[in-house]
Specification:
The complex is a heterodimer of chains A (509) and B (133).
Chain A (H helix, E strand, L loop, with lengths): L2 H316 L5 H29 L7 E4 H11 L1 H7 L2 E4 L4 E4 L1 H17 L8 E9 L2 E7 L32 H11 L4 E6 L3 E9 L4
Parallel strand pairs in A: 2-4
Antiparallel strand pairs in A: 1-3, 4-5, 5-7, 6-7
Helix pairs in contact in A: 1-2, 3-5, 5-6
Chain B lengths: L6 E5 L3 H14 L4 E5 L2 H9 L8 E4 L8 H9 L3 H5 L2 E6 L4 H8 L4 E6 L4 H11 L3
Parallel strand pairs in B: 1-2, 1-3, 3-4, 4-5
The chains are: A alpha+beta (509), B alpha/beta (133).
Chain lengths: 509, 133
């Protein structure tokens, strides 16, 4: 490479280096300027912010001013209005003032006139005062004259009245005299007539007198009669007074008696209540007794059966080991056991009566036929004749009525006279709401004294040896009949026969 | 029942009754086996244990202290069906109360109701009716 070219290149290089430095300086200056600008910018932004605040302040102040201005306008308007009012008022006052001035003038004129008039009046007053004084004097004079005249007038009026009255009286008297005159004339005529009539009347009176005397006599008699009657009445009154006292006394007695009766009544009510209580207690006691009878008989049966069973063991297994006496004793024990067993069973049955109260329709003819079938052996062996009439249908317990008829019919057969075949009649008839049944036999009869005893439990009239029985049959019958609100009674003659009557309520209507 | 009457159980608190009934049963058939129990509880114990001999017929009393006849029946009813199917019960009691009779009829296991004392005739009838001769 040539030198020139190299130099040029060096110069260009230097030039470029210089330019570079310049550019670097310039860049540094630009950076500084830039920073300055940034600072200024920040300042400007701050200033803007401040300005914005100031602006807002101004805006607020402006608004306040506007408001204030508006208020002032309103105040102004108010003042203007008030001013106008004042002006009007002033005008009115001016007019009123003028009026008052005018009135004042008028009043002053009037006052002047009044003063003049006053003077005139004072003068007139004085004149009138004088005149009045004069008039008072004149007046008094006149008043005196007046009084005098009035007195005189009054006297004249009185005199006048007197004259007038006298005049009238005289006229009246004259008129009266005329009338009296006429009357006298008329009376004279009348008296003549009257004297004639009086002579007739006199005759009449004489006759009447006689009559009256007669009558008086009669009256005297009647009087005596009345006196007598009076005395009688007096006596009677005295008697009545006595009778009255008697009645009062009796009344008092009756009241006492009534009071006593009230007390007695209360007592009876009390006794009644007591009886009801007692009856209720008896019902309970009765129920308890029945319960007791049931339990007792039930529990008695148990050991008795054991005894009876062991007796059987004896009879079956050991009889051959005993002698005749022992066998006889054993037999006695056995029959006693049987009897006791039968008693207990009867007692059990008796206590059970009424326990089952299921009532059904029963045809009594059918029922009696059943009973007769049960008693067949007894009827045949005794040769009994049984007659049964038409029997009703009833509402009852079949078991109870079976027992009832069986007891009565078997009794009728059982208590027969020796050698006479028993004849039993069974009848029924309807009474008022009741059925009455009758069982008649031709047996030994019952003494009247024993009628009630036969219905008591375990009561027997005959001894065991004569007739079998346990003394419970009729007690059963009575109990059954009582369950049907019925009654049982006896008609009997010793040695001729007995009829048992019983009634039961007819529940079929 | 298609069995022969061989073993009979008596349930009664009264030892005398058990004695008489056993005697009657033996008189009817000397080969019969009789098991006497004096209470329902004892009887139930025996039945539950399934001991041999097995009872073909039970005579049951009603009125007993402790467990009575009805209470025994309630307990008995809970027993095994197979066991029950081989046994019949007959009420044997003093009570001829219709209420008791009606009550007994309600129990299917009870076939008869008889009142004491047990007789040879009764035994005959029960045997004929319910067992092979």
């Amino acid at each position: 490479m040539d030198k020139k070219k190299l130099d040029q290149l060096i110069i260009a290089n230097r030039e470029l280096a210089f330019q570079n430095e310049e550019k670097e300086k310039r860049a540094a200056e630009l950076i500084i300027a830039n920073r300055e600008l940034e600072f200024q910018n920040e300042e400007k932004e701050k200033r803007e912010a401040e300005l914005a605040i100031a602006d807002r302040e101004l805006a607020f102040q402006t608004e306040e001013k506007v408001k204030r201005a508006a208020e002032r306008v309103i105040a102004m308007k108010e003042l203007i209005f008030q001013n106008l009012e004042k002006q009007k008022r002033a005008a009115e006052l001016i007019i009123a003032n003028r009026e008052l001035a005018f009135q004042n003038e008028e009043k002053e004129k009037r006052a002047a006139e009044l003063i003049i008039a006053n003077g005139e009046l004072i003068f007139q007053n004085e004149e009138k005062g004088k005149r009045a004084a004069e008039l008072i004097i004149a007046n008094r004079e006149l008043a005196f004259q007046n009084e005098e005249k009035e007195k005189r007038a009054a006297e004249l009026i009185v005199a006048n009245c007197e004259l007038l009255f006298q005049n009238k009286e005289k006229e009246k008297r004259a008129a009266e005299l005329i009338i009296a005159n006429r009357e006298l004339i008329f009376q004279n005529g009348e008296k003549e007539k009257r004297s004639e009539e009086l002579s007739i009347a006199n005759a009449e009176l004489a006759f009447q007198n006689e009559e009256k005397e007669k009558r008086a006599y009669e009256l005297i008699i009647a009087n005596w009669e009345l006196v007598f009657q009076n005395e009688e009445k007096g006596k009677r009154a005295a008697e009545l007074i006595i009778a009255n006292r008697e009645l009062k006394f009796q009344n008092g007695e009756k009241e006492k008696r009534a009071a006593e009766l009230v007390i007695a009544n209360r007592e009876l009510v009390f006794q009644n209540e007591e009886k009801e209580k007692r009856a209720a207690e008896l019902v309970i006691a009765n129920v308890n007794l029945e319960q007791f009878a049931y339990l007792a008989s039930h529990d008695l049966q148990e050991p008795l059966r054991t005894v009876s069973n062991y007796m059987k063991v004896f009879e079956e297994d050991y009889l051959m080991l005993l002698d005749d006496k022992a066998r006889e004793y054993l037999h006695s024990v056995n029959s006693s056991i049987e009897r006791m067993s039968s008693l207990i069973k009867s007692l059990l049955n008796f206590s059970r009566l009424g326990a089952d109260r299921t009532l059904t329709y029963i045809n009594c003819n059918e029922l009696i036929n059943d009973v007769l079938a049960d008693l067949d052996v007894m009827i045949k062996t005794s040769g009994a004749i049984i007659e049964v009439t038409e029997m009703p249908d009833i509402m009852a317990s079949e078991i109870e009525f079976h027992q009832l008829f069986q007891n009565l019919i078997s009794n009728a057969i059982k208590f027969r006279r020796k050698g006479i075949p028993p004849k039993v009649q069974i009848r029924a008839k309807e009474l008022d709401k009741k059925w009455e049944f009758a069982i008649t036999d031709n047996g030994i009869g019952i003494a009247p004294g024993h009628f009630s005893r036969v219905f008591e439990i375990f009561q027997r009239l005959s001894t065991n040896r004569e007739i079998e029985g346990n003394g419970i049959g009729l007690a059963n019958c009575k109990k059954i009949i009582q369950l049907y609100e019925g009654e049982i009674r006896i008609e009997s003659k010793l040695g001729q026969g007995t009829t048992f009557y019983f009634t039961i309520a007819n529940l079929i209507i | 029942m298609n069995t022969k009457l061989r073993c009979i159980m008596l349930i009664d608190d009264n030892p005398h009754d058990n004695f008489f009934h056993e005697r009657t049963i033996k008189k009817y058939d000397i080969n019969s086996i009789v098991i006497s129990k004096s209470s329902g509880t004892e009887a139930l114990e025996y039945l539950k244990s399934q001991k041999e001999p097995h009872s073909d017929l039970i005579f049951l009393d009603i009125n007993m202290p402790g467990m009575n006849g009805w209470e025994f029946l309630r307990e008995y009813n809970l027993l095994d069906e197979e066991l029950k199917s081989r046994t019949i019960i007959v009420m044997l009691t003093t009570s001829d109360n219709p209420n008791d009779i009606a009550k007994a009829k309600k129990w299917s296991v009870v076939v008869e109701y008889i009142t004491k004392p047990l007789t040879i005739e009764m035994m005959q009838e029960i045997s004929n009716r319910y067992f092979i001769q």
